[in-house]
């Protein structure tokens, strides 16, 4: 598929079946992270692959985190998260190896992690796989991050659910970009997207 068509057709989905990418294909997909823009060459992105029996174990940690963050969390919410984390074909934990004292601002380190994750989502699509980036409060729970290998100041940027899109899976409809673009000619710009 020509590359622009690829970029213009990618969508997120959690309607995912087996298989998830493995071996050399997975390596290639993850290698696209190394092409992300990265001020200072800090390479702050880290990937933790969770599959097979590790999934329910991760789900238990997620549930523990949910209860820690909100002791009154609704049982239905717990059940939904537990099922998703236990059954997605693969989960890639998006880790962030952060250096708060570095001359490169933290936000730029986090943006690089996001750019690398985007490359991975595009590479999944390019290879016939798919996924979705999810977070929730648990993604920012320092205790969960530490349990996964990212003690403070490091942390998580979320999770990628990864697999093969089920037939008919598709993302939200897209708007034209015009309302999100402006040309600056000396006065502050306005965007159609922001008009009430
Ligand atoms: C940092 C980040 C966190 C996200 N967390 C969630 C989430 O917890 N739940 C969710 O449904 N979508 C979440 N999303 C949005 C989806 O990943 C996805 O972008 C959205 O469903 C729109 O689909 P699209 O990528 O096809 O436009 C998140 C996106 C980002 C960038």
Describe the structure using short key phrases.
globular, flavoprotein, YdjA-like, single chain, 6 helices, NADP, binds flavin mononucleotide, NADH Oxidase, 5 strands, alpha+beta, Nitroreductase-like
Could you write a compact summary of the structure shown?
The chain is 37% helix and 16% strand.
Please describe what this structure looks like.
The model has no long low-confidence stretch (mean pLDDT 97). It is globular, with a radius of gyration of 18 Å. It has helices at 3-9, 23-31, 54-69, 75-87, 106-126, 142-147; strands at residues 16-17, 45-50, 90-96, 130-134, 155-165. It starts with a helix and ends in a 31-residue tail after the last strand. Helix content is 37%, strand content 16%. By secondary structure, it is of the alpha+beta class. The longest helix has 21 residues, at 106-126. The chain contains six helices and five strands. The chain has one domain (3-194): 3-Layer(aba) Sandwich (NADH Oxidase), CATH 3.40.109.10. Strands 1, 2, 3, 4 and 5 form a five-stranded antiparallel β-sheet that branches. Bound molecules: flavin mononucleotide (FMN). The site of flavin mononucleotide (FMN) has 10 residues, from strand 4. Flavin mononucleotide binds at residues 11-12, 132-136, 158, 171-172.
Write the layout of secondary structure elements.
Blueprint: H1 3-9, E1 16-17, H2 23-31, E2 45-50, H3 54-69, H4 75-87, E3 90-96, H5 106-126, E4 130-134, H6 142-147, E5 155-165
Antiparallel strand pairs: 1-5, 2-3, 3-5, 4-5
Helix pairs in contact: 2-5, 3-4
Bound molecules: flavin mononucleotide.
Enzyme class: oxidoreductase
InterPro entries: NAD(P)H_nitroreductase (IPR052530), Nitroreductase (IPR029479), Nitroreductase-like (IPR000415), YdjA-like (IPR026021)
Family: Belongs to the nitroreductase family.
